[in-house]
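Here is one chain, start to finish.
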Amino acid sequence: ATAPSMYGKCQRKFSKKNDVCVIDDQEQWFLRITQCAKAKSNAGQAVIIICPNFKSEFPQFQVLDETTEYKQNVITRATMSGMVTIIARSFARGSDFSCTDDVTIARGGPHIIQVFLSNSHAEGTQAAGRTARQGEPGSLELVLYQDDLLNLGFEAEKLVEREADLYEYLVEQRDKNYSNSVAGLIEGEKNTRSDHACTLKLHKELTSYSPDKDSKIQQLLLDLNMKYVGSSSSASSYHIFFCLDDSGSMS
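Its structure:
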């Protein structure tokens, strides 16, 4: 069950057809981002660009990443009219860019420019949620670089073929990739269960060590390692080195 928002209908402006584009030239991609940001900031909106590595010059400009010293001050200023803020991808989740600037609100609220495709629906929802918070106005657009999408498994021909419903195609493939990734993690967890059980046994023997357990410890080490030794080298001599930190620094 879900409860309706106490702030009413979301005021975020986003057109799946007009606010999504893929650009195949990197210089043109940077130029498009800069032009979009300048147009919005000149119109009185605040602009937040979600991008790990983007540098440009604006009249009012700031960066929010892991190295920023006074993060909350940057977040507070990010919604000021005319301000352009570039934030690292990690700050697109959980950061409260609530707008109290009357000019920004009157001009349409903070505008988000997302320059990468989110890995999942959840991440996309979080990124979009940095604007139009608590009933406030706001807007969003996606300006994507084609090579980034190709690295995620997209096909250039498909991006052209699906131009009419580009956003739907991006989301469709993104969700498929995410589902495959989750399935791989689940399968990997299943495949490591026996190793995990063996490791727990080894840990138990080591933490209650006595000389009479040497042979059992050696056998557990062999059990953990032999499956990774190829059949061609199984008869070769080899040594297992087991090193423990006895300094106490990790306790």
